[in-house]
Amino acid sequence: MPDLLLELFSEEIPARMQAQAAEDLKRLVLDALREKGLKFEGAAAFLTPRRLALHVACLPTRQPDLREEKKGPRVGAPEAAVQGFLKSAGLSSIEEAKIEVDPKKKGEFYVAVVERKGRGTIEVLSEILPAVIQRFPWPKSMRWGAASARPDALRWVRPLHSIVATFGPETEDTEIVPFSVGGIEAGRTTYGHRFMAPGPIRVRRFDDYAPALDKAKVVLDPARRRDMILHDLRDLALASGLELIEDEGLLEEVAGLVEWPVVLLGEFDEAFLDIPPEVIRATIRANQKCFVLDDAATGRLANRFALVANIDAPDGGAAIAAGNARVVRARLSDAKFFWESDLGVRLEDRLPRLEHVVFHEKLGTQRQRVERIARLARELAPLVSADPALAERAALLAKADLPSEMVGEFPELQGLMGRYYALAQGEPAEVAEAIGDHYKPLGPSDRVPSAPATIAVALADKLDMLAGFWAIDEKPTGSKDPYALRRAALGVIALVLENGLRLNLLPVFRSALDGHVVGGALRPVNESEREIDAALMDFVEDRLKVYLRDKGARFDLIDAVFALPEQDDLTLIVARVAALGAFLETEDGANLLAGYRRAANILRAEEKKAGADEASAYEAPFERTLLREPEELALAEKLAPQGGAPSWEAPLAAEDYEGAMRALAALRTPVDAFFEKVTVNAPDPALRLNRLRLLSDLRRAVNAVADFSRIAG
Asked: Which domains does the chain have, with CATH numbers?
């Protein structure tokens, strides 16, 4: 069956736009094919820095013929309705329509049989492809040449030079899909590497297109380019006694900058190794798109770097490496100057400059934010086993590197540079570590701090953000989260759970909110606005549900635990979910759940019949004197032992949820016996009410651990 090959060859496609462009081209063309009734077996998009390509396999030679019946108005309908029907169905007179009886609507209706012959696929493609190119959704695009003065001129990311569009089967020659866009006629000519093989290449189909480009020094598949670069980087580093510091983001970017990757090594002066290694890496990465290397023998940063060229140079790349080394040397000289300048100013001396840095127009300056975080960190310190003075000191200096020269040049180094400056000025190691790590964790794969002072500052930083933005009603909506509040909430969750902290979040949220009032960023909070902390807790709970589901916990068990009142201790919530899951996997747990459901169903039915007032009587304690059958006596003794408390109350009070579940398992036998031997709806109204109260006591006992009504299965 025929295949389609489409290539859009342009001056340049910026690396940051390439992946989305390939996805958009594939989506737009395939959606248009489906809309036209054209099926296919597979499709793949490819890209290089100068071309977008699409291969669609096994298309039919033409559209299928269509036959459909179009129902019209009732026989005898007004003339206007009849004429409208004729026009929509493409009929010249009503005699061309059939009359059919509709038994449901009890009448006769006109029906038109519309038949359309399918068109040739190449004809359909000649309509689809120019439309896709004309409306291609580039984030930024341009017009060029003489036609650029016209508002309807083609817009492309950079000037579009040629279009390849061929269609045909594997065993025969292909046809050119006839269309033009912006004065560019579709054809079968592409071009090789800009420098090494710039001449035209005549192609017929994808099977000869990709190999022809390979011979012309163009690697079409971006995944293959990435693999080639990574393989060569590792091999070259190993051969030189070095170890590559891998960088997935940089690898992706560099693969989008070259069509024929050639890996080379460069060198810089060893004197620059006095600069923090993160600064060297950021400088070389940001300015030259190069990879840094470790010395395999020492494990420390080497004065070498790896670059990816786009050409096989006659001198083996020596001139290219030397040119990059000159630029790297200049950039590192700037970084060294920033580093040495910053070391001359103490962190606390930078704090006044934070008064001129606005955090948010409604939440004050960075200086105000620092004071709030410091106060909150001191409050949190005893709760996380941290020294309050160290936590407060670290929080006070946590943002002081923001006005530094180095962070101004490389914002991604904030916090990290503060750590270096703190150590250089003699701050305690705990303070420096807290400054360096207080932004963490930044994502699910990021390291979670474990040092107590760091935990206090990191929590204070995130809690202050959440409380402030909730107070000014700047909450995330849908997919929009401009202040990364979901990430802040997940950070709080990770800090608490990964460190096994026992922390009641509701009072902490209230304290964080009060900090905004004390600091002057917000007006005083009245009692109705105290609902903010509860809303914040709901938000964190929603994030915790996501966190637990990602860890494999059942959603119904999570809901069962969250249904309990005053759930603000994340560690206990997780412990309850884990204990509940383990309990329900046992035979006793499964059978108790079945007994609970039977009791709950009976109560629900009776409560519905009785109405609210009478149903409330079921919640009263049962009367022991009205117990008659041995089985109800046995169940009552388990639920309310004479002279003692139920066996699960002590472990529940001690927060031993596994122990509480084991104690509840003892209910299984008396519950099973009760339902087998005892008639709940006894003829005697007093007995019936007492047995319903006994079941209500059972429901209440089980729900003290979790809301079993929310458990599925």
From this structure: 3-61+120-215 (3.30.70), 71-116 (no CATH), 222-315 (no CATH), 348-552 (1.10.3210), 582-710 (1.10.730.10)
